[in-house]
Amino acid sequence: MKILVLGGDGYLGWPTALHLSQAGHDVAVLDNFHRRQYDFELGVESLTPIDTLQGRVEAWREVSGHQLGMYIGDLTDADFTYHVIRDFGPDAVVHFAEQRAAPYSMIDRKHAVYTQVNNVVGNLNLMYAIAEIDPSIHLVKLGTMGEYGTPNIDIEEGWLEVEHKGRKDRMLYPKKPGSFYHLSKVHDSHNIEFACRIWGLAATDLNQGVVYGQQTAETMLDERLLTRLDYDAVFGTVLNRFVIQAVLGQPLTVYGNGSQTRGMIDIRDTVRCIQLACENPAERGEFRVFNQITEWMSVQQIAETVERCFPGEVTLEHLENPRVEQEDHYYKVTHTSLLELGLQPHLLSDTLISSLFDVVKQYAHRVRPEALRPTVTWRNPGLDKS
Ligand code: NAD
Ligand code: USQ
Description:
The protein is of the alpha/beta class.
């Protein structure tokens, strides 16, 4: 298949592009390098040193013999987006290319507006380009488990059978997201469902949980193929941060009482899930939703797992929660679709955590420890002025 990976310079887009290429697909990557710019803005950089996109593509050609196409530009530029869809002519487009950090979207009005414009407009341009140029292209869109929030009923895969006053309907599952970033994903999901319904597009929305890990079979082949690993309090995700904090001898920063629970997935399963979604496309007119997680854990359990695996002393520090989020809540998620397509999950193991310790130890000198402490809060900005 011809597969275009949008956001192909990012944490997940890069290893996914390699995985699809290694599986024999003809792959091109697209990126505008905003992720590298956020690092300049925040004064941090990926824990792992990452090569330029051009250097990575060249390294992959040397290591594997496979060529990756490359498009540099911004999805919010409609002319560019249309050009790429025409020029590459993909069978499937995997869309990772969004601003993805909840804290970044909550810094202030400017960052909230940037996040929603970037994500919603980029996705709309893409939907229109597909609809006008070739509506048979399968859109594989990265959504997030955080679209659902933490409802007091089981979370289904995108849709809910509802019975109300004696009548029944199949409705989009109600959403209760927890940041302006997570809201942007809800807006995307609604826009894509609408496009499937009215234009007959074929889409898979992958509501992915928090990803952990750094290495995949392909990125391990050469140091120039490493993917990024974020540790700062804005872009670092919880398990990766806890591993890095343990190695640095810093306390693991559990927000609030730590009983908030999140769906999780190993990066090796992420790349496999994308492959499964591409190779088993949605039907024309179908808005298909998969919950892309393999297990769920509370933040406290994640911290305790890291503490248990680390061969040294680890302390846990319960910080006042900078986010407004439910801590004690019900959490049960249906996630059978990807398993039915053949996913064999890597559940969180001591071996994985130990291998992450090794990666982190190698690059620990690159960390700026101040960046580990959370500074962005979810409080009403008006309250700060009074
Ligand atoms: P990332 O920030 O590392 O990668 C996203 C890439 O998209 C970056 O390289 C960025 O430069 C690019 N990009 C952003 N806006 C763009 C635009 N307008 N045009 C072109 N390129 C643009 O993020 P990631 O961790 O690899 O996440 C990828 C996707 O998966 C995101 O959509 C995210 O919401 C979703 N997701 C991530 C996680 C996680 O734990 N990392 C979990 C669930 C879902
Ligand atoms: N948390 C801590 N301590 C930390 C960091 C986080 O207790 O040092 C807690 C947070 O309060 C939150 C949970 O851990 O309850 C998860 O936080 P996170 O930063 O790991 O994840 P989140 O903000 O939800 O965002 C990440 C990705 C995002 C993706 C999402 C999947 O950045 O792109 O969409 O995970 S999900 O959470 O399922 O929505």
